[in-house]
Amino acid sequence: MDELPIVTGDDIVRVRQRVRSAAASGALSLVDQTKLVTAASELARNVLIHGGGGSATIEPVLSPAGRKGVRITFRDDGPGIPDVQLALTDGWTTGDGLGLGLSGARRLVDEFDLSSSPGKGTVVVVAKWSR
Amino acid sequence: MERVPILKIGQTLFVSIQIDLQDESVLQLQDDLAGELAATGATGVIIDITAVEIVDSFIGRMLATIGSISRLFGAETVLVGMRPAVAITLVELGLSLDGVRTALNAEKGLKLLGGNP
């Protein structure tokens, strides 16, 4: 298990690199590695920009069916998301992007779980399995 | 923050991204490129992303913005060398990179710009 702080733009790059090596060790195909790293990049940026900083925890996991995979947990203590359903809609944006960050990240992974409430920060857990 | 170099060859500006792109580096590239276009009057921009392992929504949006900015300076932008895994991921992410022309490699990109660098 590997916990990385997300406090600067440099940290987003570091999260991408660590997720890349975890995904390669987890026997994910090159396309699946790229999808997971891209999703991690989106979510790490959310932690930094909307959550005011936080962390990413990267861990190798084994599915019940015995497949290798990688799970990443993104945490921040930011303002939280008032309407999670709305935030997961394509094109919904806080105003400075395309509104593809959360919804796009969800499409790129096999498991996606978001819990957030106003004032209590946000936790996003994603996982991708080898095929 | 690392900077992406811009080379001028004839009427074309060449940008080959060889670093792990930080958001600040992409924004800096946008500024640098606008400055180069204004200073040189180049008519084409080739952005080579052969070495780029991921393009997320921020980087994608910035590449599209660079295309729009270049057009305001009378220059056409061609994005070349996208990796297959990056292309698949971009489509799934929902990014279409409207407004940026693409080519398989730098040679084909140059042809698209009119043949002569």
Write the layout of secondary structure elements.
The complex is a heterodimer of chains A (131) and B (117).
Chain A (H helix, E strand, L loop, with lengths): L1 E5 L2 H17 L4 H20 L4 E9 L5 E9 L7 H4 L13 H8 L2 E6 L5 E8 L2
Antiparallel strand pairs in A: 1-2, 2-3, 3-5, 4-5
Helix pairs in contact in A: 1-2, 2-4
Chain B lengths: L5 E4 L2 E5 L6 H18 L3 E5 L8 H16 L3 E5 L3 H10 L7 E3 L2 H7 L5
Parallel strand pairs in B: 2-3, 3-4, 4-5
Antiparallel strand pairs in B: 1-2
Give the DSSP E fraction of chain B (strand runs of 2 or more residues): 15-25%
Largest sheet of chain A: 5 strands, antiparallel
Shape of chain A: globular
Q: What percentage of residues of chain B falls in helices of 4 or more residues?
A: 40-55%
* Helix-strand string of chain B: EEHEHEHEH
Radius of gyration of chain B: 13 Å
- Round the Cα radius of gyration of chain A to an integer and report it: 14 Å
Biggest interface pair, counts: A-B, 26 and 23 residues
Count of distinct strands of chain B: 5
Main beta sheet of chain B: 5 strands, mixed
Number of strands of chain A: 5
Could you spell the SSE succession of chain A in H and E letters? EHHEEHHEE
Oligomer: heterodimer
Net shape of chain B: globular
How helix-rich are the residues of chain A, as a percent range? Answer: 25-40%
Distance between the termini of chain A: 22 Å
User: Strands of the biggest beta sheet of chain B: in what spatial order?
Assistant: 1-2-3-4-5
Low-pLDDT ranges of chain A:
none
